[in-house]
Design brief:
Elements lengths: L2 H13 L2 H8 L3 H15 L4 E4 L2 E4 L1 H31 L1 E6 L8 H10 L4 E6 L2 H9 L5 E5 L10 E7 L2 E5 L21 E4 L3 H8 L10 E3 L3 H9 L3 E5 H4 L6 E4 L7 E6 L5 H14 L1
Parallel strand pairs: 3-4, 3-5, 8-9, 8-10
Antiparallel strand pairs: 1-2, 5-12, 6-12, 7-10, 7-11
Helix pairs in contact: 1-2, 1-3, 1-4, 5-10
Length: 285
């Protein structure tokens, strides 16, 4: 007894005749009859009654066919799970926030050079989703920014480098010729900050005599940022994000708080994840 025989039996019953089943399975009627005859001989009882109007199951055939469907469904599910496992073994899934430049570009290139047979799958998602994805086993590695909350989570992280802030301006803006800016330089200017920069938002809100520096928070919309800069405004975010937006110019900003890039991964990393982490250590630590 084999899967081909079981699937042929189920198809014949569902089609109601050998003639219709042969069209469905692309097998001759003779080949189908041989399969069913061999199955019945092995089982020791009749499954199908052949009539001029088609086929009908015997009582034993009904019971057998019902369980045969369960066997096929279960077997197909197991095969799919095993195939998915094989795909995951040949793939490393890397979560990255929605922005214009990948944080670990050098690591991706080096990983591909050393392990060309392992596919790197970049998954773009929000930072909050990246945490859940690591914990749920949906991704292997995630680009992230260090936050104290990571110390108490059931995962591992590794600090890799600092991500100082930059002020993005149009080439014609007076700031474009400066080598560095301070918070004092931002007073009474048209300032916009990426809404995810919580520490910088607090620092600017409390700067000076407590009155702070006026600003608005916005998202990562390229068109909005471009219009802000070409209308004399200043957009502030992390360096790696802004360095990819030429011809707009990113100017370093001196602040008390400097964000740190980290990678997140499971406490029980896969073999591919360990290889990726080793490359991170080689390149950045």
């Amino acid at each position: 007894m084999n899967d081909k025989q079981l699937k042929s039996l189920i198809t014949i019953v569902e089609c109601g005749s050998f003639a219709k089943a042969e069209e469905e399975l692309f097998l001759s009627r003779q080949a189908l009859k041989k399969q069913i005859d061999a199955l019945e001989e092995e089982l020791g009882f009749i499954l199908l009654l052949r009539t001029h109007h088609g086929v009908a199951l015997t009582p034993a055939g009904e019971e057998f066919c019902r369980h045969a469907k369960e066997i096929i469904t279960s077997t197909d599910a197991v095969i799919k799970r095993c195939r998915d496992m094989t795909v995951r073994e040949d793939t490393i899934r890397i979560a990255s926030p929605y922005h214009y430049r990948l944080l670990l570009e050098d690591a991706f290139a080096e990983f591909h050079r050393k392990f060309p047979s392992i596919k790197q799958q970049v998954i773009l998602e929000s930072p909050s989703n990246a945490l859940d994805s690591i914990l749920n086993g949906e991704v292997d590695v995630a680009e992230y920014i260090y936050r104290p909350v990571l110390e108490d989570m059931d995962l591992r992280f590794m600090k890799i480098f600092e991500l100082p802030y930059r002020c993005l301006v149009a080439p014609s803006h007076p700031f474009a010729k400066k080598r560095q800016l301070t918070l004092d330089d931002l007073k009474e200017k048209n300032i916009y900050i990426h809404r995810g920069e919580n520490n910088l938002i607090v620092e600017m809100s409390q700067y000076g005599d407590g009155s702070g520096i006026s600003f608005e928070t916005i998202g990562n919309d390229v068109q909005q940022i471009t219009n802000i800069c070409y209308n004399g405004g200043v957009f502030i975010s992390k360096a790696y994000f802004l360095n990819a937006m030429e011809p707009l110019i990113p100017v370093p900003l001196s602040t008390d708080h400097i964000p740190e890039a980290v990678i997140l991964y499971s406490k029980t990393p896969s073999a591919n994840t360990k290889k990726f982490i080793d490359i991170i250590r080689e390149l950045y630590l």
